[in-house]
Amino acid sequence: MPQYNGMLRSKLPNVGTTIFTVMSALANEYNAINLSQGFPNFECSPELVSLINEYMKKGYNQYAPMQGIMPLREAIAEKMQELYGAKYDPEKEINITAGGTEAIYAAITAVVNEGDEVIVIEPAYDCYVPAIELSGGIPVYVQLKAPNYTIDWNEVKKKVSHRTRLIMINTPHNPTGSVMTEKDMAELDKITKGTDILILSDEVYEHIIFDGLKHQSVCRFPRLAERSFIVFSFGKTYHATGWKMGYVLAPEKLMTEFRRVHQFIVFTVNTPFQYALADYMKNKSEYLELGKFYQQKRDYFINLIKGSKFKFVPASGSYFQLLDYSKITLAKDTDYAIRLTKEAGVASVPTSVFYHDQIDNKFLRFCFAKTDETLEKAAEKLCKVK
Ligand SMILES: Cc1ncc(COP(=O)(O)O)c(C=O)c1O
Question: How much is the pTM?
Answer without folding.
Answer: 0.97
